[in-house]
Design goal:
It contains seven helices and twelve strands. α3 links the parallel β8 and β9. The chain starts with a strand and ends in an 8-residue tail after the last helix. The strands form two sheets. Strands 3, 4, 5, 6, 7, 8, 9, 10, 11 and 12 form a ten-stranded mixed β-sheet that branches. It folds into two domains: 122 residues, Periplasmic binding protein-like II (D-Maltodextrin-Binding Protein, domain 2); 92 residues, 3-Layer(aba) Sandwich (D-Maltodextrin-Binding Protein, domain 2), CATH 3.40.190. It has 260 residues and is α/β, with parallel strands linked by helices.
């Protein structure tokens, strides 16, 4: 609390007036509302794997980076968890969330400003236990059904990679698992962090060793938040130097990281 004193002279008398001015800390552009709303989606170690039982904490790279950044900023941490990444992207586009951790692709850079790359992940295919496919070349047939997540980069890239395959849109990892288990899908394509997580729930499924591309995951904020990227890059540097980033990555259980 700051005080300012003013003297007013009237009719030979001096009156002392005290004005009270409340000082408030300046808003941080990363979390302008005083809380860090981090957009996350279920089913991948890059975002969040919710706690499944008593004593098991939620984990995931995006989830933990958001938690540690909120502590650094001194604001409340508010994870906002969606069923699919397309919902996360829609939310950040509308500035309904403050922070995301996602693939820093050119199309997303039109409405998200990204930090430096945090991790790079291989992309590939997960094959259903009902399919005998052993190579990407065998996927490029009309009778072969390959799934992808709505709003993902795979939705844009697969028509060029396997133009003759039948492409099937899925709305969640849960749906993708069901379709692969039943054999309604011959395969599914995305980054290998998600593929290995799906494979753990589908006995007999296989992640093909072939690499069809890479995703560069980074922290991002809505495009209209000025002065955030420098802070995010500094945060990443500090997390790397302290070893905390490595610990978060290991705790997530992620597979499919690109080797540098």
């Amino acid at each position: 609390m700051s005080y300012r004193f003013f003297c007013v002279r009237a009719c030979g008398l001096v009156f002392s007036l005290t004005l009270f001015a409340c000082s408030t800390a300046p808003q941080n552009p990363i979390a302008p509302q005083g809380e860090l709303k981090t957009g996350l989606y279920k089913g991948t170690p890059t975002s969040i794997l919710p706690a499944g039982s008593i004593g098991v904490e939620s984990r995931g790279i995006g989830y933990e980076l958001g938690r540690d950044l909120s502590a650094k900023l001194g604001v409340k941490y508010s994870p906002v968890v969606f069923e699919k990444n397309a919902d996360v992207l829609a939310a950040v586009k509308k500035s309904e969330v403050d922070l995301v951790f996602t693939n820093a692709s050119a199309d997303r850079a039109q409405y998200i400003q990204f930090s430096k790359t945090v991790i790079q992940i291989e992309k590939g295919y997960l094959i259903s236990p009902h399919s005998n496919i052993n190579s990407p070349a065998e996927l490029n047939q009309k009778k072969v059904k390959i799934g992808y997540s709505v709003g993902s980069n795979s939705q844009r890239e697969l028509p060029e990679l396997i133009p003759y395959a039948t492409l099937v849109q899925t709305t969640s990892t849960k749906q993708a698992i069901e379709l692969l288990k039943s054999g309604e899908l011959d395969g599914f394509s995305t980054n290998k962090a998600i593929l290995y997580e799906l494979a753990a729930s589908i006995p007999g499924s296989r992640v093909l060793p072939a690499v069809i591309g890479y995703e560069n995951l980074a922290l991002g904020t809505p495009l209209n938040r000025h002065g955030t990227i420098e802070q995010l890059n500094l945060f990443i540097d500090e997390m790397t130097a302290s070893g905390k980033l490595k610990a978060i990555i290991e705790r997530s259980g992620i597979q499919g990281l690109a080797t540098k």
